[in-house]
């Protein structure tokens, strides 16, 4: 029985049998605790890396907008960036020598990119590769404790072109996504269409895989973060 008070093990895929119209009414204490509990049991995914890969970290920022909608915050990378320019992404970057851990790197990068520090880290998802497999990307899930008004976010224009949020109600609509392979692996994940008012029309790649995905090769739902059971 699907309810809005329990974390599902994955964001809904495009397969209707994984989809529910039940989405959380709010990120309350109980739902955030359940997200954290689910993240303690995420699967370890098998990817090949080059010898001696470096570490990087990203933060998937859950938030509540000023109109009370449980949402996910995204950035659009600046057009002059060397890598992934103009793409939708989560805050993140390489772990610096001064960073105590990938977790610290995720929080530092979030502060540097979008100026937000009042974040509770709920947990970490499985380590993923970048395109060249020379980075071990540590995806963290966090909740921004203050209500988010994107018009007031003072993002860093050297790295970020704009920011926006999408409500969970939108992200759980199966009509907005199509399934594709992640990198050259057997894992599949949904590529999301964005609303007409967003300049970049797709959420794909590592960002989309972090949000949601399932191992279609084994017909087995992977334990993810935000769907409710």
Automatic annotation (TrEMBL):
Gene Ontology terms, MF aspect: coenzyme A diphosphatase activity; magnesium ion binding; manganese ion binding
UniProt name for this protein: Nudix hydrolase domain-containing protein
Statement: the UniProt record of this protein carries the keyword Acetylation: no
One Gene Ontology biological process: nucleoside diphosphate metabolic process
PANTHER family named in the record: MITOCHONDRIAL COENZYME A DIPHOSPHATASE NUDT8, NUDIX HYDROLASE
Top-rank taxon, per record: Eukaryota
Species name: Umbelopsis vinacea
Signal sequence region: none
CDD domains membership: NUDIX_CoAse_Nudt7
Nudix hydrolase domain ranges (all copies): 53-192
Manganese keyword on record: yes
Obligatory cofactor(s): Mg(2+); Mn(2+)
A Pfam family hit: NUDIX
Family from the record: Belongs to the Nudix hydrolase family. PCD1 subfamily.
Alphabetically ordered keywords of this record: Hydrolase, Magnesium, Manganese, Metal-binding
């Amino acid at each position: 029985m699907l309810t809005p008070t329990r974390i599902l093990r994955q964001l809904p895929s495009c397969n209707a049998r994984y989809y529910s119209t039940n989405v959380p009414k709010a990120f309350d204490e109980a739902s955030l605790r359940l997200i954290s509990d689910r993240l303690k049991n995420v699967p370890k995914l098998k990817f090949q890396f080059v010898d001696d890969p470096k570490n990087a970290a990203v933060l998937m920022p859950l938030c509540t907008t000023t109109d009370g909608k449980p949402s996910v915050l995204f950035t659009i990378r600046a057009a002059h960036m060397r890598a992934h320019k103009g793409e939708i992404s989560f805050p993140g970057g390489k772990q610096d020598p001064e960073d105590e851990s990938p977790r610290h790197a995720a929080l530092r990068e979030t502060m540097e990119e979008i100026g937000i520090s009042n974040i509770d880290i709920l947990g970490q998802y499985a380590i993923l590769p970048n395109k060249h497999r020379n980075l071990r990307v540590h995806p963290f899930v966090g909740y921004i404790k203050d209500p988010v008004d994107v018009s007031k976010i003072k993002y860093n224009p050297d790295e970020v072109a704009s920011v926006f949020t999408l409500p969970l109600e939108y992200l759980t609509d199966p009509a907005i996504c199509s399934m594709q392979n992640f990198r050259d692996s057997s894992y599949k994940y949904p590529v999301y269409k964005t609303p007409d008012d967003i300049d970049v029309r797709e959420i794909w790649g590592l960002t989309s895989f972090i949000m949601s995905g399932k191992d279609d090769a084994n017909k087995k739902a992977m334990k993810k973060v935000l769907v409710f059971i």
